[in-house]
From TrEMBL:
Gene3D superfamilies: 3.30.300.30, N-terminal domain of ligase-like (3.40.50.12780)
EC numbers for this chain: 6.2.1.1
Domain named AMP-dependent synthetase/ligase: residues: 94-473
Chain segments annotated as transmembrane: none
InterPro entries reported for this sequence: Ac_CoA_lig (IPR011904), ACAS_N (IPR032387), AMP-bd_C (IPR025110), AMP-bd_C_sf (IPR045851), AMP-binding_CS (IPR020845), AMP-dep_synth/lig_dom (IPR000873), ANL_N_sf (IPR042099)
The entry's keywords: Acetylation, ATP-binding, Ligase, Nucleotide-binding
SUPFAM superfamilies: Acetyl-CoA synthetase-like
Coiled coil residues, start to end: none
UniProt keyword Cell cycle, yes or no: no
Acetyl-coenzyme A synthetase N-terminal domain segment(s): 34-87
Name by which UniProt lists this protein: Acetate--CoA ligase
Gene Ontology biological process: acetyl-CoA biosynthetic process from acetate
A GO CC term attached to the entry: cytosol
Amino acid sequence: MSKKVDEVLLKINKVYNPPKKVLEKALLTKEQFDDMYKKSIEDPEGFWAELAEKELHWYKKWDKVFEWNFPYYKWFIGGKINITYNCLDRHVQNGKRNKLAYIWVDEDGIEKKITYGELLELVNKTANALKELGLKKGDRVVIYMPLTIEQIVIMLACARIGVIHSVVFAGFSANALRMRISDAEAKVVFTSTWTKRRGKKINLKSVVDEALAQECDCVEKVVIHQRDKGELELQENELDFYELIEKQSPNCEPEIMDAEDPLFILYTSGSTGKPKGVLHTIGGYNLYTHITTKYVFDINEDDIYWCTADTGWITGHSYIVYGPLSVGTTSIIAEGAPDYPDPGRWWSIVEKYRVNIFYTAPTAVRLFMKYGEEWPAKYDLSSLRVLGSVGEPINPEAWIWYYENIGRKQCSIVDTWWQTETGGHMITTIPSYPQKPGKAGKPFFGIEADVVDEEGNPLPPNAEGYLVIKKPWPSALRTCWGEPERFEKYWTQIKGKQWYLPEDVATKDEDGYIMILGRADDVLNVSGHRIGTAEVESALVSHPAVAEAAVIGKPHEIKGQSIKAFIILKTSYEPSEELKKEIKEHVKHELGPIAVPDEIEFVEKLPKTRSGKIMRRVLRAKELGLPLGDTSTLED
Ligand code: WTA
C-alpha cells in the first residue's frame, strides 16, 4: 500500500469527538439520540405520532399514523394540516412576528431582510393573487427564478392554497424547462428578469420565452419579477409580480389540506430516460424536515443558519424553505457565486452576520481549499458551531480542511446523506455524536439502513455493497409524476424484499458508520448536481454531426466528477476542435451549463453488449486505466 493510501485510511479511522462549544448547546446528547433512535425503530408509529403532535399544528388529528399498501404508503391518514401555518402563522402568533426569517444578500453586498410577520403578509398577498389568476388546489405552477425572497414567497403562496409547485433550477436551459412545464402541465410560470453571477447579468425571461415557444399550451399566464422597475414591455399573457400582489389583501386563510395531499414536484435525474417528477406530500414531509432541521443542525432559538444551496434543488426546498421556517429560525440566503467578487465572500458573510450553522457541498469546500487557507483566515469565524456537508461524498482531506480552517477545530461536521426522493436527511451523525471524516455516519430516526449484496444478503463490515432502506419513512417520495412504474421500481429492485434502493454504493463499519462511495447506476454527480448520462447522451445525439454518443464521469479535483463524452460522428463530418466547441455549445443550449462535457473524444466505435447496450463501465475502466472486469457480454 502506498504512503498516500495509508494516510487516508488513518484519517478515516480517526474519530473526532464533538467539541465543547457544540456539547454546551446540543439539543440531544449522544445517549438521548441513541434512545430515541431505538424507540423510532421499535415503534415507528408511536414515535412519529408523538413528535407530530408535539412539534406541528394540525387542524384535525390523523385517524391512522401509517398504512403500507406495498409499494404505496401513507402517513398521518385523515390528518388535516397546512405547512405554511406551521412555517409562518404559528410563529407570528407566538411572539416571533418581528424575528427575521431571511437575510438575503447579493454579490454587490446589497441586503434585504424580512421578518416572519412581513413574510406572512407577502405570502398571503401572493396566495390571493394566485387565486385571482384562477389557480386552485391541485393545479401546478412552475417557478424558474433565482435565489430571492420573492422565489420563496411564491413557493409558500402555492402551499398556502394547495397549488403544487415545481421549481426548476434557474441554470437549466429552455429545453429542460419546457420538458418540466409540459410534463407537469403547469398553468402559470413564475420567473425573474435576470440573475447575476460573477458580476454578469443572466437573462432568465428570455429562457422562459424560448421554452414557451413550443409544446406549452397548458400555460395561461407568465408572472415576472422585474428586478429593475419597468424593465419589460409586458405582453398580453404576462403580469408584473409586484403589480399583481400590491392590490391584494394581506390576509388569506390557509387552505385546510389533507396530510397526503401533494406539496410539490421536483424533477431529478435517473439512470435512464427523462428526469422523474418526484412527488412529496405535506404531512410527513413537514414533520420529517422539521425534525431533521432541528436535531441535525442543533438549531437553538437565537441561531443564525445558512444553507448555501439554491432553492432549485431539494436541499433548498427542505433546508432553506420548509425545515428552517417550520422550526422558526433565521436564515441567510446569498444569490450569486461563492467566490465573487473575491474568495473571501462567504467568510465575510459568516463574520458579518455571526452565522452559527453553515451547510454547504464538498465541491465548494474543495474550491476554497484550492484558493488556500489564507482566505478564511482573514475573517472571524468564531460564531460557527455546526458545519454541514451534502450532495456527494466528502473526501477525508476536504473534511479535515473544513474542520480545521472553517470550523477552527471547534465545530462538529454533519455529513448528511440523502436524496431528492428521501425528502430529508437519512444518514448523518448529529452534532453531539463522534464523527469520522468521509463517513456520513448513522441512520437518523426511523431509518433502518443496511449495506447488502445484489440479492439483499447482509455483508461483513467494511465490504462494499448496495445501500438499502428497509421501511418507508414520513418524507419518502409518494410517486413519480405520471409514471408510477418508475416509483415502484425504487421498492422492487431487490427481489423478495420490500426495500428502498437508493442506487448508491456504500460500506458499513464495525460501529455501524456508513460511508457512501458514490452512485451504483449511470447517474453523474458534477459539483453535487445530479445529471443522467442518458440526458447528456440524448442532447449530444440531437446535434446534426453526432451519430452515437456515450458519456462517463471522471474523478475531478473540485467538481467531484467531470463529464467525458465519446462520440461517433456521422460519416459526412470531420473531427475538429471547432466541432467539439460547437457540440459543447449545443449541450449547453439543450440542458444548461452544468451538463456540458469537459472533454470530448471522437471515436470510431463504442463498446457494446451483443444486445447493443453501450458498456459505459468499459469506457470508464479504459479511460482511468482500471481493470476491464467482466467483458464476456462485450460484442467484440
Ligand atoms: C449523493 C441531494 C455522499 C448520493 C441531497 C445521492 C451524497 C445523490 C451525499 C442524491 C453525502 C448526497 N455523501 N453522497 N452526504 N448527499 N449524495 O437527489 O449519490 O440531488 O444518491 O439530493 O447525491 O442527489 P440529490
